[in-house]
Each structure stands twice: as C-alpha cells, then as structure tokens.
Automatic annotation (TrEMBL), chains A, B:
<dbReference type="InterPro" id="IPR003488">
    <property type="entry name" value="DprA"/>
</dbReference>
<comment type="similarity">
    <text>Belongs to the DprA/Smf family.</text>
</comment>
<dbReference type="GO" id="GO:0009294">
    <property type="term" value="P:DNA-mediated transformation"/>
</dbReference>
<dbReference type="InterPro" id="IPR057666">
    <property type="entry name" value="DrpA_SLOG"/>
</dbReference>
<dbReference type="Pfam" id="PF02481">
    <property type="entry name" value="DNA_processg_A"/>
</dbReference>
<protein>
    <submittedName>
        <fullName>DNA-protecting protein DprA</fullName>
    </submittedName>
</protein>
<feature type="domain" description="Smf/DprA SLOG">
    <location>
        <begin position="65"/>
        <end position="284"/>
    </location>
</feature>
Length: 381, 381
C-alpha cells in the first residue's frame, strides 16, 4: 500500500523519487513523507490524501494496482531505473494501474510499441494498421498510447487481427481520454489492457503525456515511429527507448510529407532503423526467449545485450581474435550494425581490441550484474 | 595512342587489364598485344583493328579521347584502381571518350550521381528532378546514365536549373542510346558532357551497362539512389560506389512502393544514408576543397579520408584519449557515423584504443602513401 499511496503524491517520473528509493524502501519513504511536517509538495499532498475514493473509483471500473513482485508485473519497466533522465523525468513506476481482460506481464513478454503523430496522413494510418495487424498475426502484442492518429490506427489494426493490444494512458483509468476514443479504449480493455501510472481521478497533463511515453518504450521490446512531424511527442518516445536500450524503428514515407519528417530524421541520424513491414520489425525485435525469463531474478550481463550484440559476441572466437569484416559475416550483420554492436560490447568490456587489430573476448565475461537499486539499497528486489 | 588502341580491344573493366598495367606501361602492353601471335581475344581483335574509321566517327560528332595526364582528365576515376572487383569487373578506364561543351575534369570536381530505375514512379521522377535542380543551384554537377526513368528525370532537373550535367553512356558516342533520348542527350552535350568508355561504333551491351555504372560512381563524390526495384542496376552502382569509398545515399518512399524497395533495403542495412533533399546530400558530399587539389600529385593518407573520418580524426586529442561519445559530439556526427569513421581510421592505424578504453592517435600519422600503380610500376603518376 505504500507504493499506491506514494504514487498519489509523487508525479510520475519525478527525478527525486529514484534517488530516495535507492536509500529507502517504499515503506520507509512513505512513512517519512506521511509523517513529515515539511511544507514540500509530497508532504502537503500526503497530509490531505484520502485513498478511499480512489480505491472506490478503481473498483467501480475494475482497475487493479500492480506492484513489483506481482505475477502480472511487467518486470521490464524496471529498465527505466537504469536509464538517464529525459526531460527531467526518470525511473521505473512505483506501480501500474491496469484495467482489462489481459495479463499485462504476459502480454508485454513480446510487445512492440507503435506510435506517431495525432496529425497523421492516410498513408501513415494505413501503414500503422497493417503493421499492427501483421505483428499480432506473428504473435506480438501492440502497445500504443490510445491517442488520435497513428496510435488509434495501431490499436485498430491489432483489434482487427483479433490480437491483444495495450493502451498506455496519461490520466486515470476511471475516465477515457480522448473521450472520442471511449469505444476504442473499451475494445482495447476487452482484448488486452489499459495501463496508467496515474491513479483514478487524475486528469492527463502535458507532463503526464511525456512520462507516459517512457512507459510505452519500457513496456515494449522496440518502438516503431510511423509518422511524426518535427514537434511530435513520438520523438520523445524514441528518446526514452534509446535511453533504456530499446530498439527504435521508423517507417519511411514520401520525402515531401511533413508527417515523415521525424522518421526520416531518426533514420538519417542513425537513431532508428528503417522498417517497411512487420517482418522487418520482427527481425529487429526477437520474441523474448525462454532463456531470458529463466535468469530473470538474477539478470546477467549477456541477457542485457540486444540481438545484434549477442550475435557479434557469439561470433567472437574463444581464443585469438577475428577482424570486423569476419565478425559481420559470421553474425549475419551489416558492417555498421556490427560496429555499433562492438561499441556496445566494448564499453561493457565484453570485447577488447587484440594486438593484431582484431577483436577478442574482453576482460568481463558473462558475470551476474546487480541493478543500481540492488547495489544501493541492499534489497533483493 | 596505346591507351586508345588498347581500349578498342579490351572490354571495359576487364579484370586482367589492371593486373597487366601494374607490370607494364600501356605502351609496353599494346606492343605486346599487337605483336602477339596468340589466339586470345585481345590479340585477335588487335590483329584486325583499324583505328581510322573509329577516329573518323569520333571526329564527325566532335568526340575527344581523354587519357590520364590530360587537363580535362577526371583524376578521381583512378580510385577504381584501388577498389575490389564487382561482378568480375574492376579498374580505372584506359581513357574516356567525351562529347560536349563542358570540361569533364572541372565538371566532376563537385559532382553527385543520381541514379535509379527505368521503371520509376511519378513520385520518383518528381523527386529526382527536384533534387537535381536544387543540387545544380547549389553549385554541383549532376551525373547520371541517360536512361529512361530516374536518370532522365535527373538530367532534366539539372537542365531545367540551367546547370551542368554529365551522362555516362554504355555505347559509343557516335550514336545516342536510348534513341528516344536523342534530344535530351543532345541538350546534355550542350550544357555539359557525354562520357563513354566504349569507342565510337560500339553498341551498348548488358556487360557495358554494368561497367558503365562503375564510372557513374567513380566520377561522383557520392551517389543517390532515388528509386530502384529489387532487380534494378542501381543496386550495382551502389555496390561500386561503396567499393571505392563514395558516399551512397538513398531516397525513401512509401513502404508499399516496389520502386522504393532497394533504397529502403540499402538504408536499412546501413549501406546508404537516407536523404530527403539536396541539402541532405550536400551535408554528406562536401564540395571538393582546394586542399585536396593541392596535394594531388602526392596523395597523403589523410587526403583519402572521407568527411566523417576527417572530422573524427580532427576530434582526437594530440595527447591522451577521448571516448566515443565525446568524439561524436566534437565531430558533430551521430554515434553510428562516428563508429564507422573510427573503424576506417582504425584499419589504417590512424587511431588506436587507449588503455582506458578511449580512442587515441594511432601508430600511423599523416604519412605520404603511394598508389598501387606507383608501388608496382615505379612511375611517378
């Protein structure tokens, strides 16, 4: 209950929360906030907090509150605790409000985020719908934000293929925003789940739309930007995805289309991989294998590698070295993709440069790692 | 005259030619071929070669034959002598037939190749025309192959902006191919030049179209693929461009368009940079600076670096090391672009990995290098 209460007084993604939770358990933190005579915002809100109407509102719409350790908890959102702040937000959610028939943890085991402009074109809508339907057919769950434009097209594609979809909302789940999407969001709840960090009764806000974007990224193995003009929030989702090591993908379009500005920019600058269809996306985002799930309580360094890094790591010889071209060939990757993977491995000291200029196994090898929370708090999460 | 005669008996891009020219001067090689009693194809053709009608046909249309050392000779085509074979072709041309008002060497000092499908879409044609017109306005020359579709759209865009353009043809310059482009190719000759490796009287052939593509790549600082289906020859031009270190760029389009298949593939696999407009292209392909021209008789290792490699090399500290992110920031490049540049520098030993994992100046530093021809033949270019 401490996490639920805290989530009612702390704004999602508050920078200070992660710091405090590295020093204290949620129970200690709530006791300190609730018992404080300070005039800071958390204490003032805690002093007037009445959980009864919030829980009643949740009950009325069948919403449940998930916390770490629950069966349905999507553990991958905790990657947010390892990311850098984006626009002064950071950190995993204290808990998640969920409404709908699906099991969130199971649904996002193999999930792809599809996001983009509210001001989408017919081309963008059609592409989002087709990609979502094809992804669902291939066994994936489609995660989006329930907004007008690309988000709605993605949810509709998933629903059309009778597959699960997850809508991450910025406000409380007792109300549907945007109102015009009431029927759509009800369908999403029936086929999958609605998710929010905000308790029932909380309206969406600009800040909450941005912190919501980090959940879309964190709940997905990769995020696809279908269309986004130069000011779209989809850019923010891409930044979040990059900051926590999710694959960022983008859909090309006509060069004359302003709605394709951000996808083109992301691809051009190497921040996103160009994808044209669901098969391209699956190539980037392999389904979560059972081997990952097995090690879950004790994440290992190799489990944190992406598909390209794993392929390159596997291609290293157990003794001696191998040159970049040879590694690319064996890993089945392009040279740039191999170089990016090598850089990721090099910074983790999993590979090193050999005396002959080739690449060899590095100083660090497949050792268990501890998350920052474990290191700082001594807990066992 | 030995080069001209040789070019009449040797197919463009013949693998054996480069090998023989590393051991012999063109004069020695021609003497050996012409004096041979062998029955090989070169000797048989040399035995029946009559240069008079070829020279007369050239005279009749005002075509001239350029060889290395001529004022108008485009020295950058000699980069082909450093590339790897592509589809069993390789090597710089023995000479180039040129027809038209322009100075080829000067025109290609700042040239961009724009190529693509014969089976282009209205979107592709419009994009090629606009990019070509804008490039010419920015001071560049547009190089293409004079074919239907994207090639023609590119030439037309350049001509519409009253700028120079170069058409590289697969057959002799005494005839225009395709015939339907007679008026267009005449306009190209008036505003720029027509170029061919084949002597007058030689028809285009499938093989010559492929070896022609290597000249489009070699004459340009970078090549833009506007549209190309999965079987287009534009893919071949991109391969040539990569093999000799030219920038490869590609234009995105609707994901449903088969004509955008190859551009999307090239971008996705990291073989091409996405470009949406002439400004994007100029960002990749900086105009040839005067500093390169100055060192021309004695190429130095640093002169062979591309823009990104130079920027990264400049960003290295003179003492100590710098990490990849810092280098990317200072070089003004994306992380993938920086990593690709570092790999290029590392293989040339211009950078090395420091003990702390950062990058430092390598064992090799700005030493003059000799081209393979110079090394083998002892000549002084």
């Amino acid at each position: 209950m401490s996490r639920l209460a805290l989530s009612c007084v702390v704004e999602p993604g508050d920078l200070r929360l992660r710091t405090r939770l590295r020093q204290h358990t949620p129970e200690e933190l709530w006791a300190s906030v609730a018992g404080s005579s300070s005039v800071d915002a958390w204490a003032r809100r805690a002093a007037v907090l009445d959980l009864a109407p919030i829980l009643a509102a949740a009950d009325a719409v069948g919403a449940r509150f998930l916390v770490p350790g629950d069966d349905e908890w999507p553990e991958r959102v905790e990657d947010l605790d390892r990311g850098e702040p984006v626009q002064e937000s950071v950190g995993a959610p204290l808990g998640l409000w969920v409404r709908g028939a699906g099991d969130l943890g199971r649904l996002v085991g193999d999930a792809v985020g599809i996001v983009g402009s509210r001001a989408s074109t017919a081309y963008g809508d059609r592409t989002a719908t087709e990609m979502a339907a094809d992804l669902v057919t291939l066994g994936a769950t489609v995660v989006s934000g329930g907004a007008f434009g690309i988000d709605a097209a993605a949810h509709r594609g998933a629903l059309a293929a009778e597959g699960p979809t997850v809508a991450v909302l910025a406000g409380g789940l007792d109300d549907f925003y945007p109102r015009a999407h009431t029927a759509l969001l009800q369908q999403v709840a029936d086929a999958g789940v609605l998710v929010s960090e905000a308790p029932p009764g909380q309206p969406p806000s600009r800040r909450r739309f941005l912190t919501r974007n980090r959940l879309i990224a964190a709940l997905s193995a990769g995020v696809v930007i279908v269309e986004a003009n130069s000011r779209s929030g989809a850019r923010n989702t891409a930044t979040w995805a990059t900051s926590i090591g999710r694959h960022v993908m983008a859909v090309p379009g006509p060069v004359s289309s302003a709605a394709s500005y951000t996808p083109h920019r992301l691809i051009r600058e190497g921040e996103a991989t160009l994808v044209t269809c669901a098969a391209d996306i699956r190539e980037m985002v392999a389904p979560m294998g059972s081997e990952l799930a097995l090690h879950h309580s004790q994440p290992r360094l190799l489990d944190l590698l992406d598909a390209a890094e794993s392929a390159v790591y596997e291609a290293l010889p157990s003794r001696g070295s191998r040159d970049t071209g040879d590694l690319a060939l064996r890993a089945g990757l392009s040279l740039p993709a191999t170089l990016i993977a090598l850089e990721g491995l090099r910074t983790r000291q999993l590979v090193a440069v050999a005396a002959n200029g080739g690449w060899m196994l590095g100083a660090v090898q497949d050792r268990p790692v501890r998350s920052p929370q474990q290191e700082a708090g001594g807990g066992d999460g």
